[in-house]
Write a structure and sequence with these properties.
- By secondary structure, the chain is an alpha/beta fold.
- It has two domains: about 200 residues, P-loop containing nucleotide triphosphate hydrolases (Rossmann fold, 3-Layer(aba) Sandwich), CATH 3.40.50.300; about 180 residues, Nucleotidyltransferase, domain 5 (2-Layer Sandwich), CATH 3.30.420.
- The chain contains 15 helices and 17 strands.
- The strands form three sheets. It has an eight-stranded mixed beta sheet, sandwiched between helices.
- Strand 10 and strand 11 form a beta hairpin.
C-alpha cells in the first residue's frame, strides 16, 4: 500500500507535546478541567493505530461509563479520522476501522469484562479515578501483554485512591511518563474565568478540579473524612486475627452484580475489620469456599433482608437456604433505611481498626462512595450513587447495623443505697415510717 500524508486537523497544545513525543510505555496525566487531555489522547490513539506495524492493530479508549465514552470522545474520534481515505465508522459499536487494518474503539468501565480475552496495542483510561480499580490488573493489563501494548491513565484527582497510587508511582519511576497540569500554571484558562470558578465553588471542589489536588475531600463522599481520619490516627494498619475471638461476616448479596463481604471481630467496644472479599457473577458456593478457606472461626454471617428471596442458581432455594447448605450461618440484619445505616456506620467509624492490606479494596470503595448528583438542580440527592463502590459500602452498612445487635446493653445503674449517717433527720423518719407501714 503506498504511503500518503493526511492531516487529522489536530493541533496539539504546548502542554501535551511532551506526551506525544514520549518513549515510555506507561503514562499518567493529571490535568485540570478543560485542559484538552481527552482530545490529546484520542489523537494519540489514532496516530498510534496508523503507525503500528503489527498485524490488525487494536487500540481502545475507556471511560467510566459507556455512555460517557460516547458523549466525551466519540465526536473527537470521528472528526480526526474523517480526512483519512478508506476509513470506516461504525456508529453502533463506537468503532473506527482504518485503511491499514488498525482499529480504535470506545468502551465503558461499567462493563470492563467486555474487554476480557481481547488483545490491545494501546489504551487510554480516561477519568481512571472513577473506575473500579480491579479493571486494570484483572482485565486490561493482561490484554496488553502479548503485544507489549501501552497504557495512559488520565483524569482529575478524586482523593487518594487507585489513580493517586498510579500517579505517585509514575512520578518516581523513570519508566513512566508523568505530567501534572494545574490551571494556575497551564495558562489555558484566563485568570478572570479561573477566579470566577473559584468564587462559585467550594475550596475542595476548586482544589480538586482546577489545582489537581489529591488531598481535597471527594465531594459528596459519605465516608471520605472518616477514612482520612482513620489513616491519620493509625487505625489503618496491620490488624491480626485473634483466634480467641469469633469472626463475623457482613454480606451484600448480588445476583448479576458483585457480592461483597467484610470480616470483623469485636472486643471491648472495638471493631477489628480484618478482611474483605468481593467478586461477581458467582453463586453462594463460591463465597462459601472462600470463607471456609480462611483460618477463621465464625459465629454468624449477616445478610440483608432480601436474602429471603429465591436464590439465583435456579434450584428454587432462598439464598439463606443455600448458605446453610454450604455450612454458613446466615443471620438477617435488622431492616433499616439506607441513610440510617450510613449514619450508623459513620458513628461507629471511630471505633474501627482496618487491616491495611486485606481490606484495601473495600477501603478504596468506602473512600469513593458518594451521593448521587442531580445535574438539573446542581445538588446532591438524598440517596447514594450506584456504581462499583456500592456493594462494599452496602456490606459495610450491614456490618454497622449487625454490630449494634451484638453490642451488649449498658447495665442499668443500681439504685443508690445510702447509710443512715449520710441522711438528714427527716429522711431517717421517712424510712422508719416506710418500714413500719410495710
Amino acid at each position: 500500500m503506498p504511503t500518503i500524508q493526511v492531516s487529522t486537523g489536530y493541533q496539539p497544545r504546548g502542554a501535551f507535546v511532551g506526551f506525544h513525543r514520549r518513549t515510555q510505555r506507561w503514562s499518567s496525566l493529571v490535568c485540570h478541567r478543560r485542559a484538552g487531555k481527552t482530545v490529546a489522547c484520542v489523537a494519540d490513539l489514532v496516530d498510534a493505530a496508523l503507525r503500528c506495524k503489527l498485524p490488525t492493530p487494536r487500540f481502545a479508549y475507556l471511560a467510566p461509563y459507556y455512555t460517557q465514552a460516547k458523549d466525551v470522545a466519540w465526536v473527537y474520534l470521528k472528526q480526526m479520522v474523517a480526512p483519512i481515505p478508506g476509513t470506516q465508522i461504525n456508529e453502533s459499536e463506537l468503532r473506527v476501522d482504518l485503511p491499514n487494518g488498525g482499529r480504535v474503539r470506545l468502551y465503558g468501565a461499567d462493563n470492563y469484562d467486555r474487554l476480557r480475552g481481547l488483545f490491545l496495542d494501546g489504551i487510554v483510561l480516561d477519568e481512571f479515578a472513577d473506575m473500579d480499580p480491579r479493571a486494570w490488573p484483572e482485565v486490561i493489563r493482561p490484554a496488553l501483554s502479548d503485544r507489549q501494548g501501552w497504557a495512559a491513565f488520565i483524569g482529575t484527582p478524586k482523593g487518594r485512591n487507585a489513580f493517586w497510587e498510579i500517579h505517585t508511582q509514575a512520578e518516581r519511576n523513570p519508566d513512566w511518563f508523568s505530567m501534572t497540569l494545574r490551571a494556575d500554571d497551564s495558562g489555558l484558562i484566563v485568570p478572570a474565568e479561573l477566579e470566577d470558578a473559584r468564587q462559585s465553588m467550594t475550596p475542595e471542589q476548586f482544589a480538586q478540579e482546577y489545582l489537581c489536588s489529591f488531598e481535597a475531600a471527594i465531594v459528596g463522599a459519605y465516608f471520605g473524612k472518616e477514612v482520612a481520619q482513620a489513616e491519620r490516627e493509625g487505625r489503618i494498619r496491620e490488624v491480626a486475627y485473634d483466634p480467641a475471638l469469633p469472626v463475623y461476616t457482613a454480606w451484600d448479596l448480588g445476583i448479576g452484580d458483585s457480592t461483597a463481604i467484610w470480616f470483623w471481630q469485636a472486643h471491648a467496644g472495638e471493631i477489628r475489620v480484618i478482611d474483605f472479599y468481593e467478586n461477581n457473577g458467582q453463586a453462594v458456593d463460591h463465597y462459601a469456599k472462600v470463607i471456609h478457606a480462611k483460618p477463621y472461626s465464625y459465629a454468624a454471617d449477616f445478610v440483608p433482608h432480601d436474602a429471603k428471596v429465591r436464590e439465583f442458581t435456579g434450584y428454587g432455594r432462598t439464598r439463606i437456604e443455600a448458605m446453610r447448605g454450604e455450612g454458613l450461618k446466615p443471620r438477617l440484619v435488622p431492616d433499616h433505611k439506607i441513610m440510617d445505616g450510613i449514619n450508623a456506620a459513620r458513628v461507629l467509624f471511630s471505633r474501627m481498626l482496618f487491616d491495611e492490606v486485606r481490606c484495601r479494596p473495600g477501603l478504596e470503595a468506602l473512600r469513593q462512595y458518594r451521593a448521587e448528583f442531580d445535574e438539573k438542580t446542581k445538588a446532591f440527592r438524598d440517596n447514594p450513587k450506584h456504581d462499583w463502590t456500592s456493594h462494599a459500602a452496602d456490606a459495610f452498612r450491614y456490618m454497622a447495623m449487625s454490630w449494634r445487635e451484638l453490642a451488649p446493653e449498658k447495665p442499668k445503674p443500681k439504685p443508690e443505697v445510702r447509710g443512715l449517717s449520710s441522711m438528714t433527720f427527716d429522711e431517717i423518719l421517712k424510712r422508719h415510717d416506710a418500714i413500719r407501714n410495710g
